[in-house]
Structures are given as C-alpha cells and as structure tokens.
C-alpha cells in the first residue's frame, strides 16, 4: 500500500547525519536539512567542508556512520533500491566511455535501470535534443567539447526520469558562455517538476539558479534557508562608480562609507545597506566628483559565504575537486 505521507514528504530529508572515515576524520558532524519537492537547492561550502561526502551518502556511494536519509519519504537504509530509483546523479568527474556514442551511452544507461530499448531510444532523443547534442548523437563521445560532455552527463542522468537530480559541480572547468547555456537547461528541467540539488563553487551560479540553500563548513551546516532571506542579512553593499574625468588625490570622507580608488576613473564604495545613495552622490558632488554610472561590486552571496566561513572562500579554488574532509 502506498504511504499517503510520501506525497507531502520532502524530496530529501537528512537528520543528524554523521560520517567518520577509517582515518578518524569526521566529515559530517550531525547535518540536518530538508529539500522541498520542486525546489532548486544549493549546497555550498569550501573544499573539505563535507559537500561531497553528503552527496555521496545520499547517492549511496558512501556509507553513513549515523543518522538517516529519506528520499520522498523512502528511507535510504531500509529501502535503498526504491530510493535510488528516484535519484539521478551528475558527478564531478566524467565517467562515461569516451569511445561510445552519446546515443548508446544514454540507451545503455537506461537499460541498466530496466527501461525497454524502444522507450530508451525515445527518451534519448528527447534528452539529447534538450542538451543540444542530437546532431552529435552518433559521433564518438571523445570528440565532444568539454561543455558538451558536461551536458551529456546531465542528459544521461535524466534518462531514468529522476524525481531528484543531484549535480556535483556540473559546470566546473567550462567557460561562462557554456555555463549559462547549462543554466538554461537546468532551469527547464526544474520547471518541468524535477527537484534539483546543486553543489557549486561558482557562487553567482547558485544565486542565479537556486531558491534555497545550505552552507556547510567543517562538517556542520552553518546557515540554511531561502536565498533572498539569507542575502538580506548582509548589512553592507559594495558598488563601483565610473567617474567623469580623474579622481582627486584626496578622496572625501563620508561617514559610514569606505572609499577606495580602483584606478583614476573608478571608485570602489562600501556602504551600509540602509544608507541613502543620494547622500553619497551629494558628498561626491561637493568634492567635484561626478558619477557617470555605477554597478554592483561583487556577488552578495560570496560576501555572505566569506562572513559565515571566514577565509575559506570557495571562489579561490573553483575548479578543484573537494577532498573528503
């Protein structure tokens, strides 16, 4: 009999999850979090924070030491097979046969999960077209570009029609244009009803895609909640002002703000969020400094991350795989 509570259960529910490796390293120290059905959820943290360990446990690649994991109400320990059938995983590493064709990779993968070949062929066409790889379907996968190989990984994971898609650094090592194309694909997958959990070092990626997030550091969740609510906690904003002419050697003093000259024509301004920008403009005008245009200085999520985790800003090691710690 189907449990009616499963219809309203979180897509992922983790309770007091702990992992201690054989070398006595505690990778997870009591992690608890919920991911709602249909959510686009970011899991952030520096290298060694425990992200990959957490993802490994949820996807049954790593054994937990204590705690519980449920996927849409199905317990991972008591009904592993049923839980795994609801999960699609896109790992950091490219782990398909480079001498196979994309079409064969997808069809064979679906076959491992019991999808009949005719149905698998139909699904493969849909997924390869969504990944913009249909024209490459019968070429050797080793001939694909780095971005194409990443999209192929996502297409393969979607062949089982997972309810929960987990992406571990899916855009690592690809350029920004390819990354934004992948963002579009992921947004379409999420809009169609698939819950997505994303781990990433590219913080603008999380801010652009995700509605909720958890930040993990040294095996603990240090913050979690709606993206907008967490960003609102920042009480300082940074701007870059483009200046007409040259900045004077002596910058004016504006109470509550920090002014730095990036170059002769660019002023770096940090100010409290509650401060009226007009006050800053007026003070600059009194000093003979005319602002031609302005832009936000940095990613607000990165500011929050640095504040919560100290000096372990992930952007410093964006393309490096996480160590199990």
From TrEMBL:
SUPFAM superfamilies in UniProt: P-loop containing nucleoside triphosphate hydrolases
Keyword Hydrolase carried by entry: no
Keywords: ATP-binding, Nucleotide-binding, Transport
Location of the ABC transporter domain: 12-243
GO MF annotation list: ATP binding; ATP hydrolysis activity
Pfam family, one: ABC_tran
Keyword set includes Thylakoid: no
Protein name per UniProt: ABC transporter ATP-binding protein
Gene source species: Montanilutibacter psychrotolerans
């Amino acid at each position: 009999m189907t449990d009616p509570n499963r219809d309203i259960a979180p897509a992922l529910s983790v309770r007091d999850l702990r992992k201690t490796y054989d070398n006595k390293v505690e990778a997870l120290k009591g992690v608890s979090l919920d991911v709602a059905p249909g959510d686009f959820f970011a899991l952030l943290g520096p290298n060694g924070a425990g992200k990959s360990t957490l993802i490994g446990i949820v996807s049954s690649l790593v054994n937990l030491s204590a705690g519980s994991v449920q996927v849409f109400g199905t317990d991972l320990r008591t009904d592993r097979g049923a839980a795994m059938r609801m999960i699609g995983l896109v790992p950091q590493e490219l782990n398909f046969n480079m001498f196979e064709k994309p079409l064969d990779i997808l069809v064979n993968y679906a076959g491992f999960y019991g999808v009949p070949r005719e149905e698998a062929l139909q699904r493969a066409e849909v997924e390869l077209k969504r990944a913009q790889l249909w024209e490459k379907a019968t070429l050797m996968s080793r001939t694909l570009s780095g971005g194409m190989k990443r999209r192929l990984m996502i297409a393969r994971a979607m062949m089982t029609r997972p309810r929960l898609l987990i992406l571990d650094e899916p855009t690592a090592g690809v350029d920004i244009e390819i990354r934004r194309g992948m963002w579009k694909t992921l947004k379409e997958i999420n809009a169609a009803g698939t819950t997505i959990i994303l781990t990433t070092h590219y913080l603008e990626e999380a801010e652009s895609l995700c509605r909720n997030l958890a930040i993990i550091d040294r095996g603990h969740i240090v913050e979690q909640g709606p993206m907008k609510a967490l960003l609102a906690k920042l009480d300082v904003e940074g701007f870059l002002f483009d200046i007409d002419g040259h900045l004077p050697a002596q910058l004016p003093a504006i109470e509550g703000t920090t002014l730095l000259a990036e170059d002769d024509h660019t002023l770096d301004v940090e100010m409290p969020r509650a401060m009226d920008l007009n006050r800053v403009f007026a003070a600059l005008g009194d000093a003979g400094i005319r602002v031609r245009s302005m832009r936000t200085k940095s990613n607000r999520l990165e500011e929050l991350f640095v504040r919560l985790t100290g000096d372990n800003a992930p952007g410093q090691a964006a393309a490096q795989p996480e160590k199990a710690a």
